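Tutorial, part two.
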Amino acid sequence: MKTEFAPGKTWVIKVGSSLLTNHGAGIDRSLVQGWVDDIAALKNEGGRIVLVSSGAVAEGMKRLGLPERPHSIHMLQAAAAVGQMGLIEMYESAFQNHHLHTAQILLTHDDLRSRQRYLNARSTFWQLLDLGVVPVVNENDTVVTDEIKFGDNDTLAALVANLIGAETLLLLTDQPGLMTADPEQDPGAQLVTSMPAADRALDDMAGEGSALGRGGMITKIQAARIAARSGANTIIASGREPSVISRISRSEKVGTLLTAADESMVARKQWLATLPVRGTLLLDKKACEALTADGRSLLAVGVTETRGDYTRGEMVSCVSAGGHEVARGMVNYGGADVQRICGISSDRIESVLGFVVEEELIHRDNLVLS
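Running the prediction step on this input gives:
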């Protein structure tokens, strides 16, 4: 059965840890070889593929004989370092069966925070893809700290999709896709075949109280929204489906398709969207409308509360009274100063702080709608 969805030539494919390692039992090489066979066929048709793979810690635990996931950050990093060797060896061997080369790329948020490093990373990806290489990406768990973590590889995959301008983000998981409700609680639950990534009804379907929510479906929806910023469509599908990648490349209906809006962000705003959020601004209704409907800058008068410890130039999340993020942007004042000017008009900033940096709290050029 066909759909109007066209996957395009440039894909980011993310493989989940529990799927890859068969719930911690060790890398499922036969399953991996099936995906690699599909990717090789896609490349033979001109496809450009980046693979984002979880599983380093799980594989490291198996190699080190650890009975349970370590609690120590240093043991986790050690397990990741050992396991990453196994991942790369496995992927290189599988792709070599098709005479294809792989490249290992380990990223942290710091690699994308700097505009120069962001552009350098993009150039490296493009060069590898031009050479016909399959980049294999993971978070650099060996050196990463909580302050610079992506949080999960769904987010990392979405940011890589932004970085390289991918047309499709494929999230392979052990679920058939997003369901309308928890099937164990609702026998009438059905697979969501297609919805816009921006649709807020998705949040309720993958709520924290559901089994799917605990399984990480919420992070996949959030990743789809990140990918949509650069115009990429996202598919959530079971990696255990036979020939799943090839079937999707033929535009078959597999899993859940979360579509992007017609327009994508300009390149600079795609970079802004990769920056880690350091704080939160709660906005009143008028400010939310000014950002979303009118495309205006954020003024201090529309902020009701600030949370978090951030400095000038860092990213903050702009949240409505209902708790939904409406935008995020690069703030012109640090958190302590914002606390003092919440709710006041721009012409009073200097009298309150003794100085004025900008009239806007966040200028619209430094603002990205969620």
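The two ends are 33 Å apart (CA to CA). In part three we will examine how such features are distributed along the chain.
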